[in-house]
């Protein structure tokens, strides 16, 4: 392992808000970021050293991009893994592509997590209308039908409260490839773990945020979490450690859990910095973005302790961001806007982090 000295260039695949916050953390440490994304511009464009427009599937363009940087990482996981392999001949790529591939498919992800000792919701694979009936008979209702690939922010999901809902759910998702029916997990709290692993294999965890989703989209992340969540954090961390080590992971990743009466239930993982970790920018000694950059350039991880009594991160979705002046006027609130020009419903325009307990 060699540590890249400040001045080196980090290539980031994807140019959304995560790329923006990664680029800002990298700049603070003296590194420069080149972004590779299919769009002409994006939230990371304002803060990166160079923007390269190219398709995620274009292996030759990705290889050329890799030659222009010292290390490559990604902030967007819905990219085909094969073209990314062309990067490896020209620059190190972190996190490993295996983590990306596993995280892209809900069935592989649940199977992998269960192999690592996770408890998951009961589930069944669905490839036809008949499979859906069989799955409902097997796991019961209420359940939730999801696409196995390329779903995000609650997209590609249909709830099945009673067997009679099967037709509507099937009609909504029949064209979306292989599906998974998951039993609804009764839970009082949702939480996530944010995990960083460096190139030497050292692992660090931040305090686990308690997350509330609305319409499948993360609404708030709060630290400290409810005591019922805190009780489950040690078991969740032990699992996360096994996952990180099995993948030989380098960088930051997140795992989302339901805190059920039986203990933590693994929901999904994201092989990248995560929305439920945005609070770490002001709330922790080192942010998830800085530690991801540290890991990929070969630096040791920074401390992950809570730096304030508490935080509440709230996403600004669509028109929420119109109240920017209100948030900017609150002395305990940090306002983050992502520079997106059009506030479509459901679109993450920014977030606020309110420091609590001060
Ligand atoms: P996902 O895209 O799988 O993270 O789902 C988005 C949100 O829907 C989750 O954070 C939960 O609030 C809810 N949800 C998804 N799957 C389940 C499940 N099996 N049981 C209970 N709630 C779920």
Brief sketch in words of this structure:
The chain has 358 residues and is an alpha+beta fold. It has helices at 17-28, 59-67, 81-84, 97-103, 106-115, 129-139, 166-173, 227-246, 280-283, 288-297, 324-328; strands at residues 9-13, 32-37, 50-53, 71-74, 123-126, 143-147, 157-160, 179-183, 189-197, 203-205, 210-214, 217-223, 251-260, 263-270, 310-317, 333-337, 348-356. 28% of the residues lie in helices and 28% in strands.
Classify the beta-strand content into a percent band.
25-35%
Give the helix tally: 11
Small molecules in complex: adenosine monophosphate
| N-end to C-end Cα span | 41 Å
**SSE succession:** EHEEHEHHHEHEEHEEEEEHEEHHEHEE
The tally of beta strands, per DSSP, is: 17
Q: How much is the radius of gyration in Å?
A: 20 Å
**Principal-axis shape:** globular
Q: What structural class should be given to the helix and strand makeup?
A: alpha+beta
Q: What characterizes the major β-sheet?
A: 9 strands, antiparallel
Low-confidence stretches: none
Helix content: 25-40%
Mean pLDDT: 96
Oligomer: single chain
Furnish the topology, listing elements before pairings.
Layout: E1 9-13, H1 17-28, E2 32-37, E3 50-53, H2 59-67, E4 71-74, H3 81-84, H4 97-103, H5 106-115, E5 123-126, H6 129-139, E6 143-147, E7 157-160, H7 166-173, E8 179-183, E9 189-197, E10 203-205, E11 210-214, E12 217-223, H8 227-246, E13 251-260, E14 263-270, H9 280-283, H10 288-297, E15 310-317, H11 324-328, E16 333-337, E17 348-356
Parallel strand pairs: 1-2, 1-4, 2-3
Antiparallel strand pairs: 5-8, 6-7, 6-8, 9-10, 9-11, 9-13, 11-12, 12-15, 13-14, 15-17, 16-17
Helix pairs in contact: 1-10
The chain binds adenosine monophosphate.
């Amino acid at each position: 392992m060699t540590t890249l000295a400040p001045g080196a260039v980090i290539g980031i695949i994807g140019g959304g808000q995560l790329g923006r916050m990664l680029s800002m953390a990298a700049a603070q440490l003296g590194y420069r970021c080149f972004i590779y994304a299919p769009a002409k511009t994006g939230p990371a464009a304002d803060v990166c050293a160079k923007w390269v427009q190219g398709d995620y599937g274009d292996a030759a363009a990705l290889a050329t991009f890799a030659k222009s940087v010292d290390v490559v990482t990604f902030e967007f996981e819905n990219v085909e893994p094969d073209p990314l392999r062309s990067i490896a001949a020209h620059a190190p790529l972190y996190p490993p592509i295996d983590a990306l591939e596993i995280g892209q498919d809900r069935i592989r992800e649940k199977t992998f997590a269960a192999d690592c000792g996770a408890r998951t919701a009961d589930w069944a694979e669905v490839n036809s209308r008949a499979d859906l009936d069989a799955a409902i008979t097997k796991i019961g209702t209420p359940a939730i039908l999801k696409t196995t690939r390329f779903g995000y922010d609650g997209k590609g999901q249909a709830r099945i409260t009673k067997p009679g809902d099967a037709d509507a759910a099937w009609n909504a998702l029949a064209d979306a490839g292989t599906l998974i029916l998951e039993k609804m997990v009764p839970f009082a709290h949702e939480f996530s773990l944010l995990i960083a692993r460096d190139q030497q294999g050292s692992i660090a965890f931040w305090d686990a945020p308690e997350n509330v989703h609305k319409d499948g989209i993360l609404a708030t992340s709060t630290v400290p979490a409810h005591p019922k969540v805190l009780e489950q954090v040690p078991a969740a961390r032990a699992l996360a450690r096994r996952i990180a080590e099995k993948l030989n992971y380098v960088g930051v990743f997140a795992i989302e859990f339901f805190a059920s009466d039986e203990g933590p239930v693994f929901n999904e993982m994201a092989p990248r910095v995560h929305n439920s970790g945005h609070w770490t920018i002001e709330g922790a000694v080192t942010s998830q973005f800085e530690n991801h950059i540290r890991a990929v350039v070969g630096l040791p991880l920074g401390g992950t302790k809570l730096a304030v009594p508490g935080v509440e991160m709230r996403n600004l979705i669509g028109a929420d961001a119109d109240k920017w002046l209100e948030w900017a006027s609150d002395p305990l609130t940090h306002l983050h806007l992502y520079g997106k020009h059009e506030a479509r419903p459901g679109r993450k325009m920014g977030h606020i982090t309110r420091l609590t307990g001060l």
